[in-house]
Structure formats: C-alpha cells, structure tokens
Fold:
Amino acid sequence: MSIRKIFQLGDSLSVRLSLWVTSAVAVILLISVAATNYFVTESILSEERLKANGTLSAAEQRINAMLSNVETAVQNHLDQIMENLDQPHEKLYDITRRIVRNNPSIVGSAIAFEPNYYPDQGLWFSPYSYSDGDSILSKQLGTPEYEYHDMEWYAKPKELKHDYWSDPYHDTGGGEKTMTTYSYPLQDEAGNVFAVVTADVSLDWLGNLMDVRYYQNAYSFILGRSGTFITHPVPSVILNKTIFSYAEEVGYDDMIAVGHEMLGGQRNMKSVTSPTYGKSFIFYGPFPHTGWSMALVCQSNEFFKEAHRTGLIVAALIILMLVLLIVIIQQAVHRLTRPLATFTKAVDEVAQGNLQAPLPDIHTKDEMQRLHHSFSIMQESLALQMEELKQANESKGRIEGELKVARDIQMSMLPKVYPPYPERKDIEIYGQLVPAKAVGGDLYDFFIRDEKLFFCIGDVSGKGVPAALVMAMVRSLFRTVARHESNPVKIIKSINNSMCEGNESNMFVTLFIGALDLPTGKLRYCNAGHDKPLLLGSDITELPADPDLPIGVFAESDYVARESSIQAGTLMFLYTDGLTEAKNSKREQFGEQRMWSELQKGGESKFVIENMTEAVRQFVGEAPQSDDLTMLTIHYLSDTTDDVFDIHLSIKNNTHEINRLGDFVKEVSNKINLDPDTTMNVRLAVEEAVVNVINYAYPPGEEGEISVEAKSDGQYLSFTIIDAGFPFDPTASADVDTTLSAEDRPIGGLGIFLVRELMDTIHYERTDGKNVLTIKKKIDKK
Amino acid sequence: MKTKIEELENEVIVTLEGELDSDASKEVDDMLKPYYINGDKNITVDCEKLVYIASSGLRIMLTILKKTKATGKKMVLRHPSENVKNIFKVTGFINLFNIE
Structure:
C-alpha cells in the first residue's frame, strides 16, 4: 500500500487532516530526537571523560603520595646510614628495622652493598629487615642463591646513579604478593655507587585504588613499563601477561593499539569492542613518576543507560502526544465542520426537490459563513430558475396545444366530406392535403354556386403558422369573393388587392382559380403563378395556363382570363409543387416524369390521388416530408338523362305579358302533376326572373324578345330564360338581409332573392351574345 | 284581380282578391296610394282571398307599412292564405307585419 493510499484511507476530512498533521509533527520530533540524542551522547561522553580523568588523577595522586612517603622514609634514613657505615652490623640492621617499623606500607628494607665493600663481610653484605605480619625480622639478603648485584632493583639505580622504582614483581618469599621496590643509590665522594638502599612496597592496595563502583561492569587495570599487567580484575594475568599477549590471546584487537598508546605515555579515550565485554570505552593516562599507565574500561551502554531510559520515556511521551494530537485534531475538525453535515443534509434535500431545506446557523465569520451565503443564493436562484422553467414548460405546452388547435382549424377549412356532392351525376371531386409541419401553407377549396363549380388550389410561400394564417386568409377571401363573383380573373384580382394591403411580411401565394360551368363544361380560369393543372382524358395534356404573377406581389397586377371547354369524362388533376419536389433520402425529387407515369394508370378521382400518395410515400421512404403535399381531382361527367318534355314560350318585354307567363307555368305544372303550392312558388320564381329581364335587359321603350323554355328530365323542372339585352348576371346580385327592420328594409331587390329561395338551382351564362338564365326545381314525385 | 276599399272613420280596410302579379300590382298601387300616401290612417289589408303575390305586391305592402309606421298609425294584414304567408316567411316580412 502506497503512502498516498494510506493518506486517502480516511474518508473523513478529520481523519485525513489529523494523519497529515501528526505525520508532520512526528517527522519534526524525530529530527529533534535524533539531534538531541547526538548532543546528549556527546555531552555524556565528555562528562565521562572528565569523570574518568578525575578517577585517574585521584589514583595517580594516591599512588604518588604513597610512593613519596616511601621515598621520603628512605631518604630520611640516608644520613644515619652514611654516619653509621663504620658499624655495619650494629647500626645498619637497626636502620632497616626502623624503616620497616616506622612505615607500615614498607614491608621490607635492605641496604645492599657492592661486593667486598666490607672485605670482612664477603661479596653480598646486605642487611635486610622485613615484616612478618606481627614482628620484624632481619637477615642477610644476599646469598650465593640470591646474587642481587645483577638484579634490576640494584643494577638499574647503580647505572642511573638515581633513585629508581623497580617493575612490580611477584614476591614468592613471604606469600603471593605483588611488590615493587624503591632503590636509592649511595655514592661516595667520587660519585661511585657503593650501596643501594631499598624499600619493598606491597602493591596489593593498587587493585582497590581506583573506585569505579559507580559503574556496574567497569574495571581498571595498570600496566607496568613493559606492558605487563600490574593490576587487573583477572588475577592470573597480573605480572604474567602483557597487554599485548593478553589481547592476542583473547582476540581483543582494539586493545593492542590502546596498549601502544598507553606505553607511549598518552592520555586518551577510545571506543573499543571487547570479545567478552562488548562495546566499551577505555580511558587511560600515564603515571610519569613510575612509568606506569593506568586505564578504566566501561561498557558503553552503562554510560547511556540513563540516557536510554530518558529516551524511552521521551519516546513514550511523544507517542502519547501524537495520539493526543490526532484526537484533538479530529475533535477540532469535527467541531469546525459540523455545519458541513447540515449542508450535506440540505443538499440531499435540495436534490430531492425541497428547495427550502433549512441551512445550519453559522455564527462564525469564516469560510462556513461564505458557504452559507453562497448556498442560500444557490437555493434562491434554483427556486427562481425552477419557476421560470415551469413557466417556460407551461407556455411551451400551451403553444403545442395551440398549434394542434391551429391544425384542427386549418384542416376544418378544407372540404372533408367525400364525395362532396353524392346526388350529382355530373361531377366527382376528391382532395387531399398532407401538411409538412403541424400546420401548412397549402390550400384547396371548391364549392358549387348557381351550377358553377368554383375551385382553387394554392401554395403559400413558407410553412408553419405564418403560412397557415395566410392560407386561411386566402381561402376566406376566395369563398367571400366567389360568392358573388363568377369571373376567376376578378376573384384573383380582388384577393390580390386584399393580400397586397399591408403585406409587410412579403408573403405570396401561387393560386389557381377555376370556375367550371357544369351544364356546359365551359371552364373559366386564371393562374397566379401556380403549376398548370393536367387534363386526363383519352390522353394526358396540360391545361394551357402560363402562370401570371403570384398574388401578394404587386397590387393591380394584370391577370389573363382564360377559357377552355372541358369534355365530359375528363379528369382534372391539380397539385402543388410538394408533389413534384418531394425528396427521398438521396435528395432526389419525385419529379414530373414519375407523376405523369402514375397518372397513366387513370382511374376515378379518389383512386388517382390515393395511388399518387402511395407512389410518393414509396419514393420518399424514410426521408422527412419537406413540403405540404396537396392534390385535387375534378372528374367532369356527362349528364345523360333525357328530357321528358321541352316546351317553349316567347314573350315581349312588357309586364302585360306576365299573364301569359303564368298560364305557361300552369300548363307545364299540369304536365307533371305539380302540387298547387309548388306550382305557385315556381310561377313566382319564373315571373320574378322574367320581370327582371323586362325591367333591365333592354333600354326603356325598346322592344325585345324574351324566350322561356321549360324542360324536365323527370327529376328536375327547369326554366331557361333567354334574352338578347345587356349582359347582366342576376346571380351576382347581393343577398337580401331579411333580418332588417321595416324602416331599414329597401323596397327593391326582392326579385332575384325570391328566385334563389324558391328554386333549387340558378345558373347564368352569357352565350352567343345572349343572357341565358336557367333555374331548376327538384320535382317531388308523389 | 279585384280590389275593394272601405273607408271608415279612423281606418281603411282594403280587400284583395285573386292574383297580385307584376302586371296587376301597378293598378293596385295606384288605387291604394291616396289612402296610404299621407300615412294618416290605420290600414287593414284583408288577404283572405289573395292567392298569389309577386315581389311587386310585396313592395306595395312594405311601402304602406313604412308610411303608417312613420306617423304612428297601424297596418294589419288579415287572414293571409298559406301560400302568401309562406312568401312572407321567405322574405322575412312575417316579422315586420302585424298579421291577424
């Protein structure tokens, strides 16, 4: 596990923060401890060195004091010796006895002479006294077995002419003791040494000389001039081994270097590793007086025992502190971040949709307060935006709902009951509009007035609601204008002028308007920029209708009046460019060629459109519909019924002729057994139509002929009134408002109104310079 | 077409009999004009025997109605036949006239 992972272990901020801080503090403490340890070690060592030096000095002083006593004791007797040389036996023994007796530290004393100093005393005159514990005994030291002249204690001071301390040695005579001997050479006036005065001193007290009891495992030793152990805790090595031989024996390599330095008289401290003792420090220093060197050896861990104990306590305290630190930080962070828990709860509630979730009370002026501030702003802003969103959604829903209503309204403007004229045998019509968007800009319409079929098809520029509004307007204008105007050119001009008024959005409409006279098959039409209709008869032809300007472009535009005769059995096919420009996913257009080949299949009006729609659907496939698709078919059929009778009346334009007309109607009525009420209504209608001609067709005073023909096919009774007067279309006259009050009602205008009301159809044509008005009444066969 | 005019103190009673067509209406109008032209008399038109009326006849009726109304006098149509009543309905005259 990496450190990073450890520090990310804690999920909570408090755990992470306390881990970080504690780690940092721990590192700092570790560095401090390491530095402290170093300085403490140095200081301990320095102190120990002082202490060791003190011990060494104390021991040196004690040895010096001891040796000085011995030297002084010897030297104090020198004068007596010199004065009593002439009484060797009497006095000299006495002197040695006194030296021993007066100095408890001196265990033996001798005055050893040169060979034959006293000729009578032989080679080895040497009075000697020694302590035997309780008493002091005397004897002659030199014997043939103890030839002392070559011994160190004698030869060396004699050679140096200087007092001399011998190397320590074993005294095998009076018990196992380590001894040393102080020798003082006696010189004659010529400077020749003639005797040596000695004092034997036991060195057993040296072993206890150095008090190192303040260490459990410390010990000391003293080396003689040659490196021999004078004292040592191991008795067997004393005087038997040198430091070098001993070191080699036990494999104490470090000690060899120490031995050399000690013999060289140096004062020092060294760190050594003993095979039995472990890591130790050795302090050593010389005794210049005797040429000895002494050493203190201490186990290093004893030095640092206290330091180590203190270190352990400090470490324990540090760990305790760190644990405490973790707890404190966790508590502190927990306390400081307590509002965060409330914030978290509030955010959860906000996520659930409760924007009014309560926020914690913050009294501190820190980040928490700023967070509180930001959070409450967020709450307010969220609530505001939610409200706006809600309103936007509501208005969007409203717009969608309104678009649906708009489409319903638009579709309701189109003729939608098919067949529209089930009782008529002369016409079959089918129309269809498939809008590209919810509401479209195409339109078609048709209605029959006065035996004329008025129809139109158009395409408003653009799509959607604006186009639909224009479409609705054009359709209403068409209905309104064509109600009293039978001339397509005039209808188009009227719509165009209305459209151009305040057409600020510059929308325009291609529009084809036709008026098919059903009795004659005469088609009057006008094309304002629309696709030419096709005529499907024995073959397929275009209706000659080169387009003029679309409506809505220029007011007062000129439009060409066109006329064509439609043969019975012909099917007119009208469409908008949504058909020919329908695109498939490859952006190819359906095109006129496909349209023509589909039209080749023929069929009646509904089939033609359904077949074409299916062909377009298959061609387009999955591609979205790009434009409104609108088609209108008008199938003009021949009226094949035969007339039952056909009679004729000719009268002058004089109201006195009216009586003849009444008789004529009665005659006709009798022929078909018409009931009296209907007869009277028909008579009134015919009379009004004829009176209209009498009053208006010819100039006053001019005589003119009026021809009245009566026909019946068994279904309808029809009268055709023909005159050669001024062109006058009575069907174009305004309706009478029957709801006006007596004061407001005009006196005239009732004639044509009555004709319309009393008959079933009225039809006017100007043919061959004559006004031809046909009115029909359906016969109720009883 | 027969037209009978009966003048009382405050009222003129006109009785129409036969067919009031466009030809007859001019003659009838000429006869009635003196009685309605000033509009100072209540006029009752008895239609019981009137079998036919053309628009010219309707115009005479409307003119009489307008005249009498203008002076606050009354005009009453009495006993019109179903045929005539029907014509009055078609033209909306039925709502204008006081018919008994």
Notes: The radius of gyration of chain A is 76 Å.
